[in-house]
Amino acid sequence: MNTDFDVIICGGGLAGLTLARQLRRELPQASLAVVEPTERPLPVACHKVGESSVEMGTHYLAEIAGLKDYLDASHLHKNGLRFFSGPAGTPLHERTELGPSEPPIVPSYQMDRGQLENDLRQILIDEGVTLFEGWVVKDIELTGADEAQRVHLFNKADRTEKVLTGRWAVDSTGRRQLLQRKLGFRRPFDNDQSSAWFRVNRRLKVGELVPEDKTRWHQRDVDDNRWLSTVHLMGQGYWVWLIPLSSGMTSIGIVADEKNQPFATYSSEEKARAWIAKNETELDAWLRDVPFEDFKMLEGYSYTTTQAFSADRWACVGEAAAFVDPFYSPGSDFIGLANCFTAELIREDLETGSVDPVRAQMLNDIYLSWADQMGEVLVNNGSIFPHHDVLGAKLWWDFFVYWTFMCPYFFRRAYRLPAAELAPFHDLGLRYNRLNHLAQELFTAWADLKTVTLNPGRPFTPLPMFPSTLADQHLELLEDRSIEHTLERMTTDIALTEELLVESLMLALRGVGPENGAEFARRIDLASWDIAPSPERVRIDSLPRRERRELLSTLARDLERALGRWAGDLVPMPDLLTNAGISAKNPIKSNKNESNTLPQSNV
Ligand SMILES: Cc1cc2nc3c(=O)[nH]c(=O)nc-3n(C[C@H](O)[C@H](O)[C@H](O)COP(=O)(O)OP(=O)(O)OC[C@H]3O[C@@H](n4cnc5c(N)ncnc54)[C@H](O)[C@@H]3O)c2cc1C
């Protein structure tokens, strides 16, 4: 097949530019073109949203796209995710802070998107990628199996047109979504959330929002690096991000659900200022004389897809494929995932002359399943944000699953395995999906039905706490493990994940109290669960403090050290379980996990 290029990448944002870099490194012989309407110089900071990376996205950018040295030199090292949970209007120093007590060893970055895209374009030109800057893709014409894809371009300056032929056409046009819209694959995603954001030309250190005389609060930040976190100021149905950028600017954004915080209340600069004055008074005071450098917004930002990759030599990456939600900053994770799957299919095609449609379908299914799973994690959390105890348990869970399953799968590039070898990973994935579904329902129901708070007024919840099972899981991401070892560990870790769910269930039962136990059980469909606290775990719970502590498992102790311990006169756990209907009348369905199964006779 004669073509102008092996791969034409339509759209030079984060997804398109990093895909070009990855392909340049992995397939050096392939000829590559990137088409992008905007021309340099791009504005520093005030360019795009999506400035904070987490572990998977960082691994992709640093190791797979080979940008580690560049990111280390030109962008900020991030100090993890930091949350300030509490009802709106609560002074910051009175809210519970949840986040790392020291900078994580596993890296992540705060990225200035304008600078990054300026620099990436130059890196690609230097490496021989053809950049059509100032050109718009008007249409991607997908042709038959043996014909080249035809990409129709339009030049904004001289109004000329041209057609490029490519063996592959990749849509990375972001929300323009040329192919998804043309092929009818775009699907709504049930998440009634919106956002507005702006940049200010001043560094905001979160400590500036707390009076200096709150010395204990300030002393927790011994090395003055709290501000390097992605800070989340949280209240009912919303969170506000504070992200520092290497240029000295700060990115600030409101993310909220329509039920609690209608978009119309913050959808212009004036309204956003008023909204901040109402909900985040210290931030309002700090912003009073500070001009906004830009103001952007997106109403109802979520959507998904039914197909992102095809054996017929096209793919959609980044926001041209799907976007679920920005909570925990997973945007660049999904860019990494879609880019790696696309690069796999392109490699197979260039090496063998075709792509196995079954393999393309399999990668497509994995991508869609991860988008669904992340959806369960990221949406419907508005009622949890003001409750530090529920939020703490959720963070523990979400980080644990992310660090024990999703990250190792991606870091070890398990998706490259032939289908038969991939099967055990997928079986584990199904179990993780099921447990995750139960856990997310549990956290929402716990927040909605809560009658008592675990450790009220707790100033700080370290996440991850050192040393702990969670911190170990995080650090182990840096180990260079074989795929066999990875599978072995995931199999062991699934038992720990089940244990974590049981511990979360026991915390939630205390949180909702005996009066709400039955309703809680109904909402989470507890009768259908195949795990529950073992008789031994229930017995340990009622032992005197010291004895109890000695007999608790490492994971249960770690969780308790991080979140705190119930105090006062406690209703016995067997009574709470009976209230929740775990009894002969409503038996647990299977004895799959002996250690966490509560026989009917016990209650
Ligand atoms: C509120 C919010 C907060 C977010 N926060 C984060 C975060 O903290 N961390 C994170 O990782 N992600 C975050 N994201 C997601 C992040 O914004 C995206 O993952 C990322 O910007 C997507 O990159 P992209 O390359 O797909 O799209 P873009 O960066 O939008 O790039 C698309 C490119 O295509 C070009 N284009 C458009 N039309 C055409 C055309 N017809 N022809 C040719 N080119 C075209 C555009 O000019 C643009 O350069 C957030 C998203 C939202 C909505």
Describe the structure.
- With 603 residues, this protein is of the alpha/beta class.
- It folds into three domains: 1-67 and 113-186 and 304-379, FAD/NAD(P)-binding domain, CATH 3.50.50.60; 192-298, D-Amino Acid Oxidase, Chain A, domain 2 (2-Layer Sandwich), CATH 3.30.9; 445-602, no CATH class.
- 42% of the residues lie in helices and 16% in strands.
- The protein contains 18 helices and 20 strands.
- It has helices at residues 14-26, 55-64, 68-74, 113-126, 178-183, 215-219, 269-279, 281-287, 331-352, 357-378, 388-411, 419-449, 469-475, 483-523, 535-541, 545-551, 554-563, 573-579; strands at 5-10, 32-36, 76-77, 81-85, 96-99, 109-110, 130-133, 135-141, 149-155, 161-171, 186-188, 193-200, 230-235, 238-244, 250-257, 296-298, 303-305, 309-310, 314-316, 460-462.
- Strands 1, 2, 7, 8, 9, 10, 18 and 19 form an eight-stranded mixed beta sheet that branches.
- α2 runs parallel beside α11 (388-411) and α9 (331-352) packs antiparallel against α10 (357-378).
- Flavin-adenine dinucleotide (FAD) binds next to α1, β2, β8, β15 and α9.
